[in-house]
Amino acid sequence: AQSVTQLGSHVSVSEGALVLLRCNYSSSVPPYLFWYVQYPNQGLQLLLKYTSAATLVKGINGFEAEFKKSETSFHLTKPSAHMSDAAEYFCAVSGANSKLTFGKGITLSVRP
Amino acid sequence: DTAVSQTPKYLVTQMGNDKSIKCEQNLGHDTMYWYKQDSKKFLKIMFSYNNKELIINETVPNRFSPKSPDKAHLNLHINSLELGDSAVYFCASTDLTDTQYFGPGTRLTVL
């Protein structure tokens, strides 16, 4: 069975500061891992995904994530936060039948 | 050109009523899903269909019945609505790399 842990519910950073959103996973098979972003009153949009190719994955809007098997982690980073990055971020792992198991999400706030 | 669309976007109804939400995808994907997002933003899968066949049926009350007339459509019918059914319902479809594409959501409010 798959599971995802996103610690904390809210992260606040200043504009221009580093963004780090943590994700740890549990999977009985080599995982596919995803980060999705949800802006207010919208659906989920794919930021990036890991599918067993390069361990450092680059996504949209300047985000990237590194797959670390030894730590069972897939943390999301962005060097410099922008006001438009304020949103809800979800980490997910896929399993049988392409079923996605999501973490509980984390709210990112960006202070001017 | 919308990839995954849902109607309606908002649905307000009384307890005990029956309602439907429609979903269509024009991505050519074989597999579609329904998710429920509760007030704490937690996302939980409800159903999955692959080419009109049910493949995932999580522990969802049998008041919820999905129907897939063809692989581009997956509708959700809910009987005897309850207060606890209030949530945002998302439809999604997936490509061959397990990447899921989500619709804009339907916010259901049961009064």
Structure description:
The complex is a heterodimer of chains A (112) and B (111). Chain A has strands spanning 3-5, 10-14, 19-21, 24-26, 32-38, 44-50, 56-58, 64-68, 73-78, 87-94, 100-102, 106-111. With 112 residues, chain A is mainly beta. In chain A, 36% of the residues are buried. The model of chain A has no long low-confidence stretch (mean pLDDT 93). Chain B contains no helices and eleven strands. In chain B, strands 2, 4, 5, 6, 9, 10 and 11 form a seven-stranded mixed beta sheet that branches. A four-stranded antiparallel beta sheet of chain B has the order 1-3-8-7, with no helix packed on it. The termini of chain B are far apart.
Topology diagram in text:
The complex is a heterodimer of chains A (112) and B (111).
Chain A: E1 3-5, E2 10-14, E3 19-21, E4 24-26, E5 32-38, E6 44-50, E7 56-58, E8 64-68, E9 73-78, E10 87-94, E11 100-102, E12 106-111
Parallel strand pairs in A: 2-12
Antiparallel strand pairs in A: 1-4, 3-9, 5-6, 5-10, 7-8, 8-9, 10-11, 10-12
Chain B: E1 4-7, E2 10-13, E3 19-25, E4 31-37, E5 43-50, E6 53-57, E7 64-70, E8 73-78, E9 87-94, E10 100-102, E11 106-110
Parallel strand pairs in B: 2-11
Antiparallel strand pairs in B: 1-3, 3-8, 4-5, 4-9, 5-6, 7-8, 9-10, 9-11
Distance between the termini of chain A: 41 Å
- Spatial shape of chain A: globular
Helix and strand run of chain A: EEEEEEEEEEEE
Strand content of chain A: over 45%
Q: What level of helicity do the residues of chain B show?
A: under 10%
The total strand number of chain A stands at 12
End-to-end distance of chain B: 34 Å
User: Gyration radius of chain A, to the nearest Å?
Assistant: 13 Å
